[in-house]
Amino acid sequence: MNRQPVAPFVLASREDGVLCLTLNRAEARNPLSQAMMSELQLKLDEAAEDRASRVIVIAATGPVFSAGHDLKELTTHRADGDRGLMRYRQIFAQCSRLMQTIMRHPKPVIAQVQGMATAAGCQLVASCDLAIASTEARFATPGVNIGLFCSTPMVALSRAVARKNAMEMLLTGRPIGADEAERIGLINRAVPADEVARETRALADLLAAKPAATLKMGKMAFQQQLELGVSAAYDYVGEIMVQNMLHAEAEEGICAFIEKRAPNWQKC
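Above: the chain's sequence. Below: its structure in token form.
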């Protein structure tokens, strides 16, 4: 009996330095199941070592960006001998690792949000460095409504938006529109639905043209200094600036500026 091949959970395509990773379970609302997270994790890890991939876009098929964790998958483990204890620890640890991989990835990561992003799906958007969304997109952390507070999404959300905005989303579970998401800083821009892919690609192309090592150092420094006090942050980023000055990209970029010419990043 011939079986139909199973479609990949994450589609990958690359063009001109931009790697697009597309969640590919539209019929199930692109849940962050263990299989989906494993495939996305693998592709992100591969991209970290791939010099041809300079910027990463995370997109999704269908009308929903991601509905978050697969609740049916979670529920099946209640029948385990430990009522799912070990598997739940494994799943949430896997999700935490994935989100931290995005935050600490050496390449800029942009979320291209065409539709609803809820719970861990909203966490995924908040974890990306940048986000472009359709004006039709909605965002929510609705776990409180089903007795499962969105505690892990809270980590990324509370670092992306102001405290009271994050608390309102978490405590009420109320969906917010793209305009409000832009206002509170969850996304960078809300654009008409037919412009989301084009706007995201324009932003990705802009970043892909920047010096790669400089972006890597800058993103790493941005994330690290957030976890430090002000004095320690200045000490840390001061040393980053020193190391950046010694890098070939800074030498080429500064010389090009002084000489009034375009920098040639290829020779760095």
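The radius of gyration is 20 Å.
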